[in-house]
Amino acid sequence: MASSISSLSSQVKPSDQTKTWALEAEQEFRLEVDFNAAVILRLVSGTAEVFGAELGAGTSYHFSGQKAAVFTWHGCTLEIQGQCNVEYVAGETPMASYLNLHTVLEQQRANVPLLPTDSSTGSSSATSFGPNVMLIGPTDAGKTSLAKILLNYAYRHGHRPLFVNLDPAEGSIVMPGTVSAAPIEHIIDPEDELDSISLDKTGQVSTPLCYHYGFPAITENPKLYGLLTAKLAQSVQARLAQNHMARRAGCIIDTGGVIDPAHYDLLRDCITDLKVNIVVVLGHERLYSDMQKMYAQSGTVTVVKLAKSGGVVNRDKDFMRRCQLRTIRKYFYGSSPQAEYSPFSTIAYYQDLKIYRVEDSIAPTSALPIGLDRKVSETRIVPMEPNLGLIHSILSVSSLDATEDESQLLESNVAGFVYVSALDEKKAKKKMTLLAPFPGRLPRKYLLYSMFNWMEM
Ligand SMILES: Nc1ncnc2c1ncn2[C@@H]1O[C@H](COP(=O)(O)OP(=O)(O)OP(=O)(O)O)[C@@H](O)[C@H]1O
């Protein structure tokens, strides 16, 4: 097993200082903890929540490499042990407006009958669905945090909404470089990120509905991104069509900071394909105004503006990279340092694998010599010879069967991911060592290359 990917979790020492914080009603304690530091947080009295997930009295919550807020509706006392980078109490928060939004969503759910219109098939009329909410705004506007709050509040009211992640940078459900969707089957734990929703009760990963994009930014390949989000939306709609209660609970859709009007068509297509009925704009006046104009005549889409929380923190490249590495690590090792899983190692021969990558996009047509047209398609895949450069890469294992046409690769969902830990090209039969969260041979031979690799920092 590669030693470079062992656990790096930081610990709180018994000698670390403990501080007590008393919060009044509707105040929030904001904390930032470095990746190489850790704090333990305890609720001593009163009630409090972290992004909508209630804290248990006396329970120890561990935070490391996180920026978070502990909000109280009625007042509480907290105890913090360890070193925070930033810690303060804020009295001004947008939580009341976030709760109002949740109340509106609850009303929409209540308007959908508990039983499907046609109980023989389980189907119901096309208008019979709950709130499909898309959160848009610039990066670091608090979209993902609001998504967590809405999902946790819905769960606490007995609903199991679908979370749709259209932000490939974060890979918040399972892996960076993907777009994905998963139902909320448990509360998003106060100390966890959204990737915990793809973990079962024992902390082991299961792969949700997920499509391979391979890049961190939407702008890297908007055409491919549009193709994949359309495919994801189609699969989401197919699942919802079969499940009345899921349709009633609705979807919460997180997006990656699309604010450039040049990419509004991507937003518009996602809104149409995912049957979005509420667009929430966070922290961007122009985007709000443009969306309002776009949907002024729409009888189905409502655009609302909500304030960005003063607690939302800008995350630099280094912090984002570490967050991505943590998500990748969780996929292979499970969620908690206390009950850690080990990935399984498997040998695969080059001759048995087919690795593809999306064809490099080339210079825009305007930059080409006169008479030469743009020949490369951004949504075409090309075979890739395994080479030493693949080491430490994360490859998506396509669900496409070997008998199926490989042109379908990008449009097929991902069955899982493997990490390339070693390559051996000395022998006649060249081989690579792959790590996977499950034992046994690779279920499929088609692998897709992404720009993400995994080396602990
Ligand atoms: N009220 C708050 N107090 C402290 N930290 C917060 C608060 N709200 C959000 N954060 C933190 O700020 C960071 C950015 O927030 P978030 O991920 O929700 O933004 P985003 O709009 O989804 O960003 P991106 O589009 O880049 O994914 C996160 O680390 C989040 O935990």
From TrEMBL:
Residues 342-456 form the Clp1 C-terminal domain. One of its GO terms (cellular component) is mRNA cleavage factor complex. The keyword Nucleus applies. GO terms for molecular function: ATP binding; polynucleotide 5'-hydroxyl-kinase activity. Residues 23-111 form the Clp1 N-terminal domain. Residues 137-334 form the Clp1 P-loop domain. The keyword Signal does not apply. It is found in: Nucleus. GO terms for biological process: mRNA 3'-end processing; tRNA splicing, via endonucleolytic cleavage and ligation. Keywords: ATP-binding, Kinase, mRNA processing, Nucleotide-binding, Nucleus, Transferase. ATP binds at residues 28, 67, 140-145. InterPro entries: Clp1, Clp1/Grc3, Clp1_C, Clp1_C_sf, Clp1_N, Clp1_N_sf, CLP1_P, P-loop_NTPase. PANTHER family: CLEAVAGE/POLYADENYLATION FACTOR IA SUBUNIT CLP1P (PTHR12755), POLYRIBONUCLEOTIDE 5'-HYDROXYL-KINASE CLP1 (PTHR12755:SF6). Belongs to the Clp1 family. Clp1 subfamily. Required for endonucleolytic cleavage during polyadenylation-dependent pre-mRNA 3'-end formation. Component of a pre-mRNA cleavage factor complex. Interacts directly with PCF11. This is Polynucleotide 5'-hydroxyl-kinase GRC3. It comes from Dimargaris cristalligena.
